């Protein structure tokens, strides 16, 4: 609601103003208590009625003014506090109009229960306004909302109509709110105590905000709330309709509304325009000296730019060379072996990627496949993927006096040890899945090193299944402290069964919302009968209807392994 600015040098002074306000209000109440009989004799009944009437008119005018300021500046700030407070004052203003119409000393057409109506509308209007202020105090100050302001306006008018209808149909059931010659009843007092409590809580909440930001406008707003508290205190003290406490309650109310209007006008109109004017003046000042400054700086910038261009060209050439090396290590988009085929999509968010994948023949029966996500992007991540490609080409180990194919868990264990013996930075880490497909047995055995994206099995008969086993421990520089134990998992693949490998760049793609795993699964379930190539193209098409591929925050890598026997 309030535009926050830090004004450190006014900190103590503003607190003093707040204390002075409380003291002055208390003193005024005490003076009225002492001079009540004197003022009653001095002020005539007609004077009371005129003061009463015009103070209510002022309240209505200021209420609608507060509404107008906040409502018509809503689209500039989209502040949830502002729009809620604007609607609270709109409803308050409307109810106060009805309150005024039931003032029988002014209008002759009022019903016989006009006094009960008058007090009811006073309490309702004060309760609505206070509830709005209390609500804004518990809303985070920078909270924004992008609903059209007309929706709030319509809702407020509906709420007001409901209030009026309920009041009309249930009026006879409402307990007596005031006794002529005695003052408010216990029911009125309970509502007043509720209003006072809400105002005090809101005041303390805004004072906490003031201590945090030391903004003068927050303190002024709290002063308005304190005046509102004394409005209700004065109301609880009156004993008859021509009591000085009624007049002072209206005085406090008008003053409170005006201070709120003044604060919000400064925060939402005057101060922004004043800042704009100051910025314009600064721009004008800079413009007078701009030409000489530009000429002086341009010469320096031209020289510096030439040097930067030369350095940049060399860096781009080096990066392009590294890109060529990295992409040369990637498999073709479509690769077919006996019994199994692969189709892939690879979209780096920069020239060089931290994602990597590959598949290769170990022997005539076994095909290895893996996908890797290295922390970070750019040159360092790309160089690490080259290291991984070399390291993951290990095919055999010597066990029991003979050579045998290394199982996936053994490959990851060796990679963990090799990585920890290297000189890569300590903050670097790798997550991956490595697996081996046996063409004869049609089993895919795999192991995970902390990969946060599960394999997805796609079957024409059995649908889509997430293989979300233990994800294992990432490859990282913790070898001195921890030796992970990697596990193997197996899955059988029938003819045309597919496995989707992917990195988190696919399911964490952001636009206004995230392209989630649920969206991906829904797409796969509806298109499970497509072959690998068609399915990869469909995923890409769906993905880039959602996000421009030229503006990615992370690398996107995915491929499908399909059993063809």
UniProtKB/TrEMBL annotation:
InterPro entries: Bact_Sigma-Reg, MASE3, PPM-type-like_dom_sf, PPM-type_phosphatase-like_dom. Residues 337-563 form the PPM-type phosphatase domain. Keywords: Coiled coil, Hydrolase, Membrane, Transmembrane, Transmembrane helix. It comes from Thermohalobacter berrensis. The lineage of its organism: Bacteria, Bacillati, Bacillota, Tissierellia, Tissierellales. GO terms for molecular function: phosphatase activity. The chain crosses the membrane at residues 15-35, 50-72, 84-103, 119-139, 151-174, 186-206, 218-238, 244-269. Residues 276-314 form a coiled coil. This is PPM-type phosphatase domain-containing protein. It comes from the Bacteria.
């Amino acid at each position: 609601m309030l535009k926050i600015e830090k004004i450190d040098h006014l900190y103590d002074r503003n607190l003093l103003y707040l204390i002075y306000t409380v003291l002055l209000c208390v003193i005024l109440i005490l003076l009225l208590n002492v001079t009540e009989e004197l003022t009653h004799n001095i002020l005539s009944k007609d004077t009371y009625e005129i003061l009463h009437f015009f103070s209510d008119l002022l309240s209505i005018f200021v209420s609608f003014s507060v509404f107008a300021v906040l409502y018509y500046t809503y689209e500039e700030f989209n502040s949830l506090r502002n729009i809620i407070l604007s609607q609270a004052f709109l409803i308050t203003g409307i109810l106060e109009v009805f309150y005024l119409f039931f003032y029988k000393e002014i209008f002759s057409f009022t019903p016989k229960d006009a006094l009960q109506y008058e007090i009811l509308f006073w309490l309702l209007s004060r309760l609505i306004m206070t509830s709005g202020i209390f609500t804004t105090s518990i809303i985070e100050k920078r909270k924004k909302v992008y609903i059209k302001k007309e929706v709030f306006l319509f809702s407020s008018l509906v709420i007001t109509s409901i209030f009026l209808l309920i009041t009309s149909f249930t009026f006879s059931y409402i307990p007596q709110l005031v006794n002529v010659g005695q003052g408010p009843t216990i029911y009125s007092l309970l509502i007043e105590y509720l209003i006072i409590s809400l105002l005090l809580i809101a005041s303390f909440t805004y004072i906490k905000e003031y201590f945090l930001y030391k903004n003068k406008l927050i303190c002024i707003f709290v002063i308005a709330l304190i005046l509102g508290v004394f409005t209700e205190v004065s109301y609880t003290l009156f004993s008859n309709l021509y009591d000085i406490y009624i007049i002072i309650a209206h005085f406090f109310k008008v003053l409170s509304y005006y201070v709120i209007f003044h604060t919000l006008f400064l925060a939402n109109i005057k101060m922004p325009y004043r800042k704009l004017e100051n910025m314009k003046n600064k721009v004008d000042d800079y413009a007078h000296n701009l030409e000489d400054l530009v000429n002086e700086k341009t010469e320096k910038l031209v020289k510096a730019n030439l040097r930067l261009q030369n350095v940049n060209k060399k860096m781009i050439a080096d990066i392009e060379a590294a890109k060529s090396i990295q992409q040369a290590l990637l498999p073709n988009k479509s690769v077919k072996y006996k019994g199994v085929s692969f189709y892939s999509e690879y979209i780096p968010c920069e020239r060089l990627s931290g994602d990597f994948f590959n598949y290769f023949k170990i022997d005539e029966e076994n095909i290895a496949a893996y996908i890797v996500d290295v922390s970070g992007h750019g040159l360092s991540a790309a160089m690490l993927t080259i290291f991984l490609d070399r390291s993951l080409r290990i095919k055999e180990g010597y066990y029991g006096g003979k050579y045998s194919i290394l199982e996936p868990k053994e490959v990851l264990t060796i990679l963990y040890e090799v990585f920890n013996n290297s000189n890569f930075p300590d903050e670097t880490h790798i997550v991956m899945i490595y697996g081996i497909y046996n063409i004869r047995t049609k089993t895919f055995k795999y192991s995970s090193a902390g990969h946060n994206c599960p394999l997805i099995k796609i079957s024409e008969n059995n649908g889509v299944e997430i293989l979300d086993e233990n994800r294992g421990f990432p490859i990282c520089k913790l070898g001195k402290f921890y030796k992970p134990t990697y596990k193997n998992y197996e899955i059988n693949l029938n003819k045309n069964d597919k496995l989707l490998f992917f990195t988190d760049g696919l399911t964490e793609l952001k636009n206004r919302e995230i392209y989630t795993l649920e969206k991906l699964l829904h797409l796969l379930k509806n298109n499970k009968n497509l072959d690998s190539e068609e399915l990869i193209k469909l995923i890409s098409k769906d993905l880039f209807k959602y996000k421009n591929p030229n503006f990615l925050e992370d690398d996107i890598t995915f491929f499908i392994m399909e059993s063809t026997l």
